[in-house]
Amino acid sequence: MATTITITGAGGQIGYALLFRIAAGDLLGADEKVRLRLLEIPQGLAAAEGAALELQDGAFSLLDDVEVTDDAATGFDGCNLALLVGARPRGPGMERGDLLAANAGIFGPQGSAIAAAAAADVRVTVVGNPANTNALIAAASADGVPAERFTALTRLDENRARAQLALALDAPVSSIRRVPIWGNHSATQFPDVSHATVDGRPVPTWLEQEFIPRVARRGAEIIEVRGSSSVASAANATIEHTRDWVRGTDDWTSAGVVSHGEYGVPEGLVSSFPVRSVDGEWQIVEGLELSDRARAKVDASVAELVDERETVRALGVL
Ligand code: NAX
Questions:
Q1: CATH 1.10.10.10 fits 3-152, yes or no
Q2: CA 297 to the chain's CA centroid
Q3: How far is the CA of 57 from the centre of ligand 1 (A)?
Q4: How many CB atoms lie within 10 A of CB 298?
Q5: For the domain bounded by 155-308, which CATH number is listed?
Q6: Which of 50, 106, 159, 203 is 20 to 30 A off residue 10, Cα-Cα?
Q7: Where are the domains of the chain?
Q8: Ligand 1 centroid vs 174 CA: distance in angstroms?
């Protein structure tokens, strides 16, 4: 039996970086066959079809089948894992409300199509921005699918945070653990060093001042230097997030998951938390102490999520 994986925006940059790693077994391991569904809009179909031809040329032994489509019902048919990468970028003169509305028009119908066509065990990773609120909209539109099956990617932020700490401390990145991201995948995110360890020892707190803006600005820095937004690192984080969800974790990581009121985050919001993956489900790590400073930072990012939800509600989407 192969696992069916749907990638939206498969003709785009992150899609291109994802497809070949999935086909090579990086997501589900070297023994698991995969069936890929590449879902695009009509303008993106040619690029996705080109990628599908290249997938053939890769002669991947794990790749059972590739289908390219612009029809959501076909794209999500029998899907076990959905990686929602395709989104509407912010165009010139577009306000934040316009961006939320345009993406609600994508993620609402995709949530409905997932509910109608996907497999009963479907798990959804939303990458396309604004990722947290897009995940919220998709979940709200997917009647009968538990909201916990919809998550937003904040693993890239966590990876950036761990890498920056490793550089600052001149330590291997593998020695840095427990650097959760709280809140929204946006400039308000709170990368939290207060629980971080390097080789099991606490990380000096003086790092925080320099570190938080550096992590939050990293996406902009990549654009400045590279001339284009993060692609391979985003695909890598998408694979790590989804792989950990399926296979489990032995320590904390970060993911945007639905709140049940943990840490005072309003119920129903998709917010990033420290999480563990146990038996195929994300569990929020509870009981952590938050300093007043940390609390204020979490609250500020969560306030932005509340505001996004209000904007979307005012549009009549939720
Ligand atoms: P690209 O513009 O290269 O690709 C997007 C693709 O999505 C295009 O091929 C487009 O045709 C397709 N698309 C648009 N609407 C669609 C729809 N309704 N159904 C299916 N496909 C659709 O962007 P790329 O660099 O690949 O980035 C994709 C998304 O990831 C963006 O929204 C970006 O902001 C977001 N990111 C999220 C990150 C995260 O950590 N959560 C980090 C990286 C990235 O910035």
A1: no
A2: 21
A3: 25
A4: 23
A5: 3.90.110.10
A6: 159
A7: 3-152, 155-308
A8: 29
- Ligand 1 atom, smallest distance to 153 CA: 41
Is residue 215 within 6 Å of ligand 1 at its C-beta? no
The predicted-structure confidence for 102-127, as pLDDT tens digits, reads as follows 999 999 999 999 999 999 999 999 99
Residue 256: which of 104, 132, 142, 137 has the closest Cα?
Answer: 132
- From 7, 41, 83, mutation site for ligand 1 pocket: most ligand atoms within 8 A of C-beta: 41
- Spacing, Cα 301 to ligand 1 middle (Å): 23
Express each pLDDT in 169-183 by its tens digit: 999 999 999 999 999
Confidence of residue 90 (pLDDT cuts 50, 70, 90): confident
Where do we find the tokens 């992590």?
215
How far is residue 26's CA from residue 44's CA, in Å, rounded to a whole number?
Answer: 25
| Beta carbons of 108 and 115 less than 8 angstroms apart | no
Specify the length of the chain in residues: 318
Regarding pTM above 0.85, the answer is yes
Q: Is the CB of 52 under 6 A from ligand 1?
A: no
- Alpha-carbon distance 234 to 224, whole Å? 16
The helix or strand, by DSSP H or E, that contains position 197, with its residue range, turns out to be strand 197-198
Q: pLDDT-derived band of residue 235, with 50, 70 and 90 as boundaries?
A: very high
